[in-house]
Every structure is written in structure tokens, then in C-alpha cells.
Amino acid sequence: MSARFLVVFDVDSTLIEDEAIELLAERSGERERVAEITDRAMRGEIDFSTSLVERVATLKGLPESVLAETAALLRPTKGAAELINLIHERGGKAAAVSGGFIQLLEPLKAKLSLDFAAANTLEVAGGKLTGKLTGEIVDRTSKANHLKKWAAELELPVAATIAVGDGANDLAMMEVAGLSIAFCAKPKVREAADVVLVVRDLAQIGSLLA
Active-site positions? Predict the structure, then answer.
């Protein structure tokens, strides 16, 4: 799989308008609590992995069917499909890496024609969510590692990568990428980024593609 460049997107509140875990937590009656924890983690006030485990615990007992139902509710951000089409037209590849859940990201990957996707896996037993994760936790370090891994698979130098994110969990991948874009981001992320975008339209990024 050859490519001229790679664009890696954060998912929640970047590639999509939603915080997917909040949509799931609404089903368990815990949305307000989960939203508060999410916000603190995004601002970098609490460790992401700790906050993730705490938030996932609120989903215990939900039927597995809520995953497909929630995936169907996710709203791609304005310009997302247009931008990914442009990336492909210009010989690039598009990827999404999320601190959210692969069961929700896989349908989005298919819908938007993403080339790569990685996220956490919610554990399911007996047709219900256990309130736990299985496998590696996708945190800020893992996001950076996925960017580097995909670049290597494409035989691209890391300088030919673009990272797009909005929260503290995206800082490591933005640091290693050739170009970092803060998209409607938290202050700490705006300060660290090469480019800051404040209008919620991903198509703006098209002008930055080689």
C-alpha cells in the first residue's frame, strides 16, 4: 500500500461531532457524570487511562445491542467525507485513532472509507457490556505509536504525516507528526499545534495538503 502522505484523525469531537462514550452513558443514566470526567481528561487535568476505566465502568450491564444502535447515531463532522475523498485523490491515506471504542469506530471507518482505524475494545460477556476493556488501552502514547506504525507500513517518513486532534490525549501524536492541526481544540492543544482551526469544517484542511 503506497501513499504520498498520511492524515491521522482523533475521532470524538474531531472526526465526529459526538463524544461517543457520552451517548453510551446516556443509556445507563450516567451521561452527566461521564461528560464531566471526559471534560477533565480532555483538559489534561486527570490521567486519560484512569478516566477511561472510570467511565467504562458506568456502562456495565448494558446490552451489546447498544453498540450498533450508538454507532448509527454518530454524526461525521462537516467536511469529513469531502476531506477524506480529497486525501485519497491526492495520493494520501486517512486513519482514525480513538480513545473511544472499536465497536463504534469500525462502522464509521466503512462509512468514511478510512484506510486505518484503532480504538479500545469494550469487553462483552453473555450479550452484555462488562464495564471493562479488553486488550491494549489506546491512550496518548498509543495514539502516537499507531501514527508511527501506519507511516512505517506505508513506507513514509513521519515528516509526511499530519495529526488532527482537539484534546490532551492527542498531544503525543501531534508532537511526532510532520504537521499538527488543532481542530476546535482545548487551549493546551492550540498552544502546541502548528495550525489552529476554530471553524467546525474539516474541509478547511484540504488547503494544507501537499
Answer: 10, 12
In the chain, what percentage of residues exceed pLDDT 90?
A: 88
pTM as predicted: 0.94
- pLDDT tier at 161, thresholds 50, 70, 90: very high
Strands (E) located in the chain: 5-9, 92-101, 116-125, 128-134, 161-165, 179-183, 195-197
The CATH number of whichever domain residue 9 belongs to comes to 3.40.50.1000
Domain residues for the domain of 161 are 5-208
One-character DSSP codes across 3-47: -SEEEEE-IIIIIBSS-HHHHHHHHTT-HHHHHHHHHHHHTTSS-
Centroid of chain to Cα 145: 14
**Grid cell locating 171:** 498531544
Residue 1: predicted pLDDT: 63
Domains contained in the chain, number: 1
Helix (H, G, I), strand (E, B), or coil: what is residue 77?
Answer: coil
Report the mean per-residue pLDDT for the chain: 95
Q: How distant is the alpha carbon of residue 176 from its chain centre?
A: 16
- Collapsed DSSP state (helix, strand, coil) of residue 101: strand
Degrees (nearest 5) of the Cα angle 69, 165, 3?
A: 95
Which long-range contacts does 155-158 make (Cβ < 8 Å, 24+ apart)? 155/2, 156/3, 156/5, 156/6
